[in-house]
Amino acid sequence: MRRIGFLINPVAGMGGAVGLKGTDGQVEEARRRGAVPQAERRARIPLDILAGNPDLLFFTASGEMGESLLAKAGITQFQVVHHYRGESAAEDTRMAVRRFLEEGVDLILFCGGDGTAREIFDVAGREVPILGIPAGVKMYSALFAIDPATAAEIIDSPTQYTLRDAEVMDVDEEAYRRGDLQTRLYGVARTPALPNLTQVSKQVFEEGDEERAKKEIARFIGEVILPDTVYILGAGTTTEAIASHIGVKKTLLGVDVVKNGSVIAVDADEKTLVDLLETEDDARIVISPIGAQGFILGRGNQQISPRVVERVGVNHIIIVATPHKLRETPMLYVDSGDPALDRSFGPSVQVISGYRIAQRKRIYQPGQG
């Protein structure tokens, strides 16, 4: 019987939809803005799948850190090895992981973001493989499954997965909220991986050709922008180049809204976008996949939620990326939190990569491999 340490960060991801770009130190502000917990919903998906595997024994923490959800999923083979009171804290994560190691777990499965990954790695290091169910806001580290369901697929395939090195990234959230992306390598964990089912760490490309390519993309988008149409611009330097070309200033790591050459919403959260779309007849979303990871939705742009996409329409999403980024991105991924919406993107999508130039890029669909 395989022994799995299981943990949830109950507040992971709460800052995403409300535009906080992270939840570390911002839980109360996220709640004030109307954020709702995401981690339990995300973690329930793989647990429902793993409930049918009799070869797994889980070790977990009490309450919302794991015990409650294991019981809800109908999993009976688990032991609570760490108890806490009140609201869980980072030290509860570390204490639970210490108990996991004492119990000799074969793998640690957690649901959270980069902050949770760092806390687990602080204790486990490379001693035990770590696999993340993505539920945070950014998730730049390389030990996350591409979506919750594939975390279960990896664990259910012990004879097929391999262990590989996975970068654990440290992101300065205060700088990130100011629009300055500062990352450093925090450590290198081990993670179980199946082909295409575990994300790689984010890459940022800085080349002269990159800047020229962004300007060419921006020039083309500038030509095809429609009057009286709302354009929701996702995060990144490519969308920033588009904004610059049409004469407006964009928040680099936020979501801004433009109409008729003017910014009508800056660093918008999900509620702002939904409210805007209630009064607008026509809208488009312009987004760029995260470098090397290839995520269109679900990493760093949770403000563009399923509710927002449904109002705009998948056919009105414009994806932009430079040729270099596309060469380094084997396929694209969608992890919006709504599996039906993710599937509606189909097997491939057109990506604008230059002036009147586009490439068709494959989108990963569960079961394709």
UniProtKB/TrEMBL annotation:
Keywords: Kinase, Transferase. Transmembrane segments: none annotated. The keyword Ion transport does not apply. Pfam families: NAD_kinase, NAD_kinase_C. GO terms for biological process: NADP+ biosynthetic process. Gene3D superfamilies: Probable inorganic polyphosphate/atp-NAD kinase, domain 1. GO terms for molecular function: NAD+ kinase activity. PANTHER family: ACETOIN CATABOLISM PROTEIN X, ATP-NAD KINASE-RELATED. This is ATP-NAD/AcoX kinase. It comes from Methanosphaerula palustris (strain ATCC BAA-1556 / DSM 19958 / E1-9c).
